[in-house]
Amino acid sequence: MSRNDEVADRFEEFADRLEATGVEYKPQSYRRAAENIRAHPGAIESLAAEGQDAVEGIEGVGDALSSKVVEYVETGEIEELEELRAELPVDMAALTRVEGVGPKTVGTLYDELGVEDLDDLEAAAEAERIREVKGFGAKTEENVLSGIEFARQASQRSLLGDARPVGEDLRRYIVGSEAVAECELAGSLRRWRETIGDVDLLVASEDPEPVIERFVDWERAERVIESGTTKASLRANGVRVDLRVVVPEEFGGALQYFTGSRDHNIGFRNRAIDRDLKVNEYGVFDVSELGSDGSSDVSDGVSEVEDIEAGQRVGERVAGETESGVYEAVGLPWVPPELREDSGELAAAADGDLPDLLDESEVRGDLHTHTDASDGKATIEEMVAGAAEFGHDYLAITDHASGPGVVADTGVEDDDLLDHSEAIHEVGESADIDVFAGVEANIDAEGGVSVRDDVLERLDIVVASPHSGLDGDGTQRIIAAIEHPEVDIVGHPTGRYLNQRAGLELDFEAVAEAAATNGVALEVNANPRRLDLSGGAVGTAIEAGATVVIDTDAHRPASYDLVRYGVHTARRGWAEADDVLNARDVEGLRAFLAE
Ligand code: DGT
Ligand code: CA
Ligand code: CA
Ligand code: ZN
């Protein structure tokens, strides 16, 4: 997460807290400033260093807000926000994650019932005390009770899109130490899981002390949780980061171990045991000379932990310096981290059947993007130029049609879509890349598509997405949209928001079969709030013969680079370039659209 995002997050919290205490108008200006700071292409810390005037160059950031930006960048805190936090000591982020609970409700429930966190909220709902508060009823209690588990889980895990930049920034900072021989991200972050419990960072060094010192000195650390001789933990941007320092000859062993997943590692170790080898975080050891030592009880995680606590380096070391050496010692090719979820990857590796995974560089275009004709923040020209600069060969502009679930008044009316399409083609004619004009139509509750057929027919590309009524089983609804003759892509098929709402339940196999039959691509929406389809669903879709497409749903050019989150999500579903529509060249794309 960039510092822009960090400042924007603080402003959004500011807005929530103001709203909770009943302040009017001001919250909107904080939210608007937050949005513009997030979208600002330059680094906010450089502007802050130039002074308040420079910060005020960002639209919507006036005198009062620019001083808070400077204060935050200089001190890591905003005093007024700290005061608001003290005044209303609630876990705003967690509470507002419960569907139907907004900042205003949080403020009222704190005033009336002293609700500070999810446990308090649950207790109040169970005791039927919420219905006694003016403006609330039994329905609110019901919503709270059905939404609280989701919110609780969500509170414990960060979005990949928030955690990954923390890990990457920290890694760049840590390798600045001369004592660091190697440094890699490990854990779920290296596997690109959609949510992250904590960030794991691994360093190879002969001299851990200066590495630990540099780590705990990171200017963006909100708090150092612990600091030892070879391990330390800190919190940054709300995420816990665990650092471990190991000697270089054990780096590969440690990287394999701490990348996980736990289930992958258990399978891997069992395979090693069959070959009289012992695998632990220190490397691979030949224990064939040691008789029964330790090798009979390593098949479950518990005794494994005991092994490691005993610090066992038994037998003769046969691998440990590199991770590929560790796999090789057990008779396997290196397994890409995204596949390490115990979903058949070890058998595939043993049989030489690992997929040739899609690479970030193989994506040639973006087929779901917006401009300021709907709710985007940039013009057609800016979006096209941005795509060319990003390195894409083609771009589809698919502004929202008007309809339910679309921000009020931002959708393009049917009668205006063809004019818009003409304007897009006009820009396309003088561009270095191929530009397609389309629409993002809504899939209604019955699976109908919200734009007239005679309009859809004349567009280059039609994305249809669910935007409303996003609960319950949506299988028939999505299949109906897939069967619509003009639909090319189903956008964010479940409509989920990670950590916020689960979205539609879908029988992915049935959806994928319909998509394959009808020549419709299923989207992996790369926005880190969505990652929809998920990696698991991509796996099912590909298995059923469907084509997937990786789109950013960009509302501004800066969002094109979110595509990497979609690529790695697709890799978690074992996607190869052949499975992915926008890994095709423009001729291949045209052929698909013409089907
Ligand atoms: P997270 O942080 O919840 O998103 O998921 P991970 O996978 O990053 O898990 P974490 O941070 O607890 O540990 C990192 C890796 O270290 C994990 O994927 C596998 C390995 N590991 C940690 N503790 C154990 C254990 O008790 N047994 C086994 N077999 N592996 C472990
Ligand atoms: Ca972790
Ligand atoms: Ca960890
Ligand atoms: Zn969209």
Summarize the structure.
The chain is an alpha/beta fold. Helices cover 43% and strands 14% of the residues. The longest helix is centred in the N-terminal third of the chain and has 19 residues.
Write the layout of secondary structure elements.
Elements: H1 3-20, H2 26-39, H3 44-50, H4 52-55, H5 63-75, H6 79-87, H7 92-95, H8 103-113, H9 118-126, H10 138-156, E1 158-159, H11 160-174, E2 182-186, H12 187-190, E3 195-196, E4 199-204, H13 208-216, E5 223-227, E6 231-236, E7 239-246, H14 251-259, H15 262-273, E8 277-280, E9 283-286, H16 301-309, E10 316-319, H17 323-329, H18 345-350, E11 365-366, H19 380-390, E12 394-400, H20 414-429, E13 434-442, H21 453-456, E14 461-465, H22 475-483, E15 489-490, H23 508-518, E16 521-525, H24 535-543, E17 547-551, H25 563-572, H26 586-594
Helix pairs in contact: 1-2, 1-8, 3-5, 9-10, 14-17, 22-23, 23-24, 24-25
This protein binds 2'-deoxyguanosine-5'-triphosphate (DGT), calcium ion (2 copies) and zinc ion.
Residues 187-188, 197-198, 200 line the site of one calcium ion (CA).
Beta percentage is 5-15%
Q: Which CATH class of the largest domain is shown? A: Alpha Beta
Give average pLDDT, whole number.
93
Spell out the CATH superfamily of the largest domain.
Metal-dependent hydrolases
Q: What's the count of strands?
A: 17
Show unreliable segments.
293-310
**Tally of contiguous helical segments:** 26
Shape, please? Answer: globular
Structural class: alpha/beta
Bound molecules: 2'-deoxyguanosine-5'-triphosphate, calcium ion, zinc ion
CATH architecture of the largest domain: Alpha-Beta Barrel
Distance between the termini: 41 Å
Helicity level: 40-55%
CATH topology of the largest domain: TIM Barrel
Tally of discrete structural domains: 4
Q: C-alpha Rg, in Å?
A: 26 Å
Biggest β-sheet strands, sense, barrel: 7 strands, parallel
> Biggest sheet: strands side by side, in what order?
11-12-13-14-15-16-17
